[in-house]
Design a protein that fits this description.
This protein has about 220 residues and is of the alpha/beta class. It has eleven helices and eight strands. It binds erythose-4-phosphate.
Length: about 220
């Protein structure tokens, strides 16, 4: 499973990029607001840091303006992926932009039929929002499983980009369900490496090593 960082904070992106584990970045209008920066400027900087796909979201809701904004965002860098909401205009804009050779990420996916529709439109990614479904008492992971089954039935190439990931358990379940990508905040990736028994075991090994008096 590919790991994308869900942030527009360039310092965090730089730090994770240095690990060699980062496969891409997703942003949305709320994350741009949080960054306090101009969308085109910050996306250009992110695209410079990261080789993989970087999602930048359109703000328009009508087909023509979505196309115009999408084309403008795509001019920023070759690795820009145009993010569009799953509405009728959004799906239509997706089809046109894909036909023009652009990458698209169809966002705010909350059911399998939406995912089926955007795959038919040729989307590069579909973004099912697991955490927001969980917040409503609906198992977000079931949606990932349903989309995986549908895409496999018809050999759709659209990648499942599991979004709104909030916990390490979400990450594990996404990987088990066959999501292609998981996008998560830096705090969630950081938490993946941690286990109390790892810390405890390491402390014991280091203490014993100290007693050997050796160096390597
Ligand atoms: C990613 O593309 C989404 O915008 C993001 O994962 C949403 O996460 P949230 O539900 O935590 O805001």
């Amino acid at each position: 499973m590919k790991f994308f960082l869900d942030t527009a904070d360039v310092d965090e992106i730089r730090q994770w990029s240095a690990t060699g584990l980062l496969d891409g970045v997703t942003t949305n209008p709320s994350l741009i607001l949080k960054s306090g920066r101009d969308i085109k400027e910050v996306l250009a900087e992110i695209c410079d840091i990261v080789d993989g796909d970087v999602s930048g979201e359109v703000a328009a809701t009508d087909y023509d303006t979505m196309l115009a904004e999408g084309r403008k965002l795509a001019q920023i860098a070759d690795n820009i992926c145009i993010k569009l909401p799953i509405t009728m205009d959004g799906v239509r804009a997706c089809k046109t932009l894909v036909d023009e050779g652009f990458k698209t990420n169809m966002t705010l996916c909350f059911n399998a039929n939406q995912a089926l529709l955007v795959a038919k439109a040729g989307a590069t990614y579909v973004s099912p929002f697991i955490g927001r479904l969980d917040d409503m008492g609906i198992d977000g992971m079931e949606l990932i499983e349903e989309i995986r089954a549908i895409y496999d039935n018809y050999a759709f190439e659209t990648e499942i980009l599991a979004a709104s990931i909030r916990t390490g358990n979400h990450v594990k379940m996404c990987a088990m369900a066959g999501a292609d990508v998981g996008t998560m905040p830096p705090s969630t990736i950081e938490a993946l490496v941690k286990h109390p028994l790892t810390d405890k075991g390491l402390a014991a090994f280091l203490a014993d090593w100290e007693k050997t008096g050796q160096t390597i």
